[in-house]
Amino acid sequence: MPSSDDGYVTAETAVVIPALVLLFGMLLWGVMAAAAHIQCVDAARAGARAAARGEPEQGVRSAVRSAAPDGATVETAREDRLVRVGVRARTAGPGPLSLGLDAEAVAMAEERVGAVGRAGG
Fold first, then answer.
1. First CA to last CA distance, the chain
2. Distance between CA 72 and CA 89 in Å, rounded?
3. pLDDT (tens place) for every residue of the chain, 121 residues total
């Protein structure tokens, strides 16, 4: 004799499985967004270090692009001895799920020790 709640398990499963898949997708997107933000921060730091060492603009951009997510843009600025490198990128995702990410790093330009002071020695 069948019990009166035979169809409830199927109905509950039909609701729970899609909810779990949606939750997993949201968690995965969040982890990917966090990883992309960390890449932006690392890229900005690499660019600021390269600029502080006095590398040319192309070298700074190359250092940033080696660590940045695909499609990132780079902005550099110099204020006296401070160099600023900003990195902007977008997270993966359709439409409103694609968020903008920004990271900035600042470093003090290193003093060049070279020909000055070596002439007498």
1. 105
2. 4
3. 556 666 677 888 888 999 999 999 989 999 999 999 999 999 999 999 999 998 999 999 999 999 999 889 999 999 888 999 999 999 887 777 788 999 999 999 887 655 454 444 4
pTM of the model: 0.76
Q: Closest Cα partner for 39 from 77, 72, 76?
A: 72
**Nearest residue to 85 (alpha-carbon basis) of 64, 99, 100:** 64
Of 82, 74, 83, nearest to 103 (Cα)? Answer: 74
Residue 29 CB partners (closer than 8 Å, separation 6+): 91, 92, 93, 97
